[in-house]
């Protein structure tokens, strides 16, 4: 991709893939489609839309879906995506600091109604204190540009947390955190503050925190950390999986539902909310 060219969002890639798939399913060539909509399309435009190089206007998506005789359920989902403004909010000023996948995550967190997160090694980013975030980022980041880059990454992580406390429709968060994440050596003072924040946040009505004890029975969480983002339309839900070298989005509805079921199993294997709060408080007090 050329320098300066905008990287498509995960939602734009979803529209692009479905538009191409639907056209090919109907046995239509790009030339046939363009000839049907001479006022809206030409071959370069259609190519950019189908390869996610340009965002597609809702009226064009609607016209193409009608022409392809798309089923009503998928039609509703794709039109909803197309109508969502591709806004780059407060994080636009950090474009040199965050990668496209992280930008997608921030955008989607702001649009979600519920987030389900399972973490093995770290406190989820939406619940981190600034000092804890700095310690983790500094140890894991490959950034070598100096402290200012680390500071900017911490600023972004903390700013993300506004979705949990905003006045209008705060996002619901269900987080299951493995015990190992609560005993990481980030410094006693840092960890005491972090555990105190978890205890405080767990008392908010839209936040549920559970701890997965080290002796928990085998469960799907053993396969690794992931985050499930849920939206008003279930077909828009998606999962972000975490890996050592890269993370990736899962959009297939069957796979997303599998992760949803796995998360419920993870919750069942973890301590309940009250016992989790006691566990967190105990760990905090041990650092006094």
General description of the model:
- The protein has 288 residues and is of the alpha/beta class.
- It has 2 domains: 10-83, 434 Repressor (Amino-terminal Domain); 98-127 and 160-286, Endonuclease Chain A (Endonuclease, Chain A, 2-Layer Sandwich), CATH 3.30.870.10.
- Helices cover 48% and strands 11% of the residues.
- Strands 3-2-1-4-5-6 form a 6-stranded mixed sheet, with helices on both faces.
- Helix 10 links the parallel strand 2 (172-178) and strand 3 (207-212).
- Helix 4 (58-67) packs antiparallel against helix 5 (72-83) and helix 10 (188-201) runs antiparallel to helix 12.
- The termini are far apart.
- Residues 1-5 and 143-147 have low confidence and may be disordered.
Which residues sit in consecutive blocks of at least 5 with pLDDT less than 50?
1-5, 143-147
H/E element order:
HHHHHHEHHHEHEEEEHH
Instruction: Indicate the overall shape.
Output: elongated
Main sheet overview: 6 strands, mixed
State the helical fraction: 40-55%
Count of folded domains:
2
Widest sheet, order of strands: 3-2-1-4-5-6
Number of beta-strand segments: 6
List the quaternary state of the chains.
single chain
| Rg computed from alpha carbons, rounded to a whole number of angstroms | 22 Å
Name given to the CATH homologous superfamily of the largest domain: Endonuclease Chain A
Termini separation: 52 Å
Q: What top-tier CATH class of the largest domain fits best?
A: Alpha Beta
Compact overview of the structure:
This protein is α/β, with parallel strands linked by helices and 288 residues long. Helices cover 48% and strands 11% of the residues.
């Amino acid at each position: 991709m050329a320098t300066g060219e905008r990287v498509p969002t995960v939602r734009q890639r979803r529209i692009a893939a479905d538009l191409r798939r639907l056209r090919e399913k109907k046995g239509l060539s790009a030339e046939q489609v363009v000839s049907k909509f001479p006022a809206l399309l030409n071959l370069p435009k259609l190519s950019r839309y189908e390869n996610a190089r340009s965002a597609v206007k809702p009226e064009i998506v609607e016209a193409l879906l009608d022409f392809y005789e798309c089923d009503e359920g998928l039609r509703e989902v794709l039109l909803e995506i197309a109508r969502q403004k591709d806004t780059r909010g407060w994080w636009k000023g950090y474009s040199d600091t965050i990668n496209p996948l992280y930008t997608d995550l921030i955008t989607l967190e702001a649009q979600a109604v519920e987030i389900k997160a399972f973490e093995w090694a770290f406190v989820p980013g939406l619940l981190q204190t600034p000092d804890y975030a700095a310690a983790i980022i500094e140890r894991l980041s490959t950034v070598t540009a100096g402290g200012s880059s680390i500071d900017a990454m911490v600023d972004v992580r903390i700013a993300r947390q506004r979705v949990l406390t905003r006045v209008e429709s705060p996002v619901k968060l269900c987080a299951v955190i493995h015990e190992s994440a609560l005993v990481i050596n980030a410094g006693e003072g840092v960890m005491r503050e972090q555990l105190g924040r978890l205890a405080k946040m767990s008392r908010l009505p839209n936040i549920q925190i559970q701890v997965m004890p080290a002796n928990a029975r085998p469960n799907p969480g053993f396969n690794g950390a992931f985050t499930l983002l849920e939206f008003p339309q279930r077909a828009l839900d998606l999962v972000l999986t975490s890996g050592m070298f890269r993370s990736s989005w899962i959009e297939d509805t069957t796979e997303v539902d599998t992760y949803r079921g796995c998360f419920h199993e993870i919750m069942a294997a973890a301590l309940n909310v009250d016992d989790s709060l006691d566990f967190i408080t105990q760990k905090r007090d041990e650092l006094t």
